[in-house]
Amino acid sequence: MDRILCPLAALSIALGFSLASSQTATSLRDAATRAGLNFGAAVSGQSVGSGGNAAYKQIVSGEYNTAVCENDMKWQSTEPSRGQFSYAGGDRVVDFAAANTMKMRGHTLVWHSQAGWVGNFAGTREEMLLAMKNHIDNVVGHYKGKILEWDVVNEAVADGSTDLRNSFWRQRIGADFIDSAFVYAHRADPAALLVYNDYGAEDMGTKSNGVYNLVKRMKENRIPINGVGLQSHFSGSSIRKADIDKNIKRLAELGLRVSITELDIVDASLSTAPWSDLMDVCMANANCTAFITWGVYDAMSWRSNGGSCNCLIFDAQMRAKGIRAALLASMAAADPAIAERRKSFGMETSRIRIAPGLSAHAVGAGSGRYPTPFLTFGGGALIDIQGRRLEQRPFLPDP
Ligand code: G3I
C-alpha cells in the first residue's frame, strides 16, 4: 500500500497540488459546499417530482446544494385567485430539496409580472397593502423554516434609471411598497434571509446605482433586508469582472449578502471565461453567498426558445460542458478563510419591535413630520421602527 501511495504523493507534490485538493474536484456540489457557497439551479415541481426524468434529478441532487423554483412560488402559481392558495409545485421542490439535504431559495413574493389577479386588482392603497400582506403571510408562513432566503421584491427598479419602475405596486401603494413587503416577510418568518432581486444591476452603472441607493436607504431605515440578488442573465464571451467585483464590495460595506440568482450566459463560442471570471469574483468576496443558474441544461432554459441556447453548464443532452471543470477549478482555488466567513455573512436578521396585539399595515421611509421610519397600524397607532408610539391619530396620509 505504502509503495503505491508514496510515488503518488511524490508525483502530486511535483505537480504542485496535494492529494487533498485533488479530492475536492468530485462534484460541483462538494466544491461549493467546501467554499461555503450555496450553489444551485432553478427547477420545477414537475421536473423533480415523481414523474421527473431520473438522469435530470441525479444531476440536480449530485451537482447542486441549493434549489429554487423557476415559476412555482410566484404569485400566479401560489395564489391563482384571490385568497385561494396552491402549493403543489413548490412543495414538490421543497420535498426534493429536503430529501437530498439541499437548501432552498424562495422566488418571488412581490413582482409586477406573473402576478395573476393582483395585477388587475383595483383596490385602495390600504386594500392593496392588505392583499400583499395576506399573500406574504400565507406563502412565507406555509414555507416557514424551509426557505433559507426569499426574493421578497423582484425587479422594482426601472431599466436605465435610478428610479423605481412605474409598476402597479408603485402606482397603487407608493414607493414604500418595498419596505412594507420586507416587513411583512420578516414578520412571517423572522429567521428567513430577505433579498431584493433585479437584473441589469450586476456591474457599476445607472441601474445598479439605483439598486444600491434603494438598499442603502432600507438599511439606514432598519428595514429588514439581508441581501441583493444579481440575476446575471448575460450574453457574450466576457463579463465586466472588475465592475461586478466593485459592486459586490460596495454592497458588502452595507453588510449585505450578494446572491447570483439567475445565471445564464448565452454564448455560442462556448467560452468558459465568463463563467470562471464570475466564480473567481464570487470566491474573492465573502459576501457572495450564492451562485444559482437559471435552469440546469440548455434545452430547459427560458432562453432556448425551443432550440438549444448554449447558456448553461449542461448541454441539451445533459452532458457537462467545459464550464463544469472551469467552475470546479475556480472553487478549488478559493481562499479557505474567505470560505469560512462566507458561511455566516450577513445572516443577522433585523429586529423590529412591534407592540403586542397590533398588526402592521405599512411602513414608511420617514420624512417631514415623521423623520424616523414608521409603521402604521389598523388599530390607530403610529409607531416608529424602534417600537415607540408616536401618536394615536390621524393615520399617515396616503402619498
Ligand atoms: O404553466 C403554463 C402552462 O400551463 C402553459 O401550457 C404554457 C403555455 O405557454 O405556459 C406555461 O407558463 C409559462 C411558464 O413560464 C412556465 O413554463 C409562461 O407562459 C411563461 O411566460 C413563463 O416564463 C417564465 C418567465 O419568468 C415569466 O416571466 C420563465 O419560465 C422563467 O424562467 C422566467 O423567469 C424570470 C424570473 O422569474 C425573474 N427574472 C427574469 C427571469 C427570466 O424572464
Summarize the model shown.
The protein has an 8-stranded parallel β-barrel with strand order 1-2-3-4-5-6-8-9, surrounded by 6 helices. The protein has a 4-stranded antiparallel beta sheet with strand order 10-11-12-13. Residues 1-23, 353-358 and 391-399 have low confidence and may be disordered.
Tally of individual helices: 15
What string gives the helices and strands in order? Answer: HHHEHHEHHEHEHHEHEEHEHEHHEEEE
Radius of gyration: 22 Å
Structural class: alpha/beta
> N- to C-terminal separation?
77 Å
Helix content: 25-40%
The molecules bound to the chains, other than polymers, are: ligand G3I
Count of individual domains: 2
Number of strands: 13
Strand order, main sheet: write it out: 1-2-3-4-5-6-8-9
What would you call the shape? Answer: globular
CATH superfamily of the largest domain: Glycosidases
CATH architecture of the largest domain: Alpha-Beta Barrel
* Sequence stretches where pLDDT stays below 50 over 5 or more residues: 1-23, 353-358, 391-399
Query: Can you tell me the CATH class of the largest domain?
Result: Alpha Beta
Mean pLDDT: 86
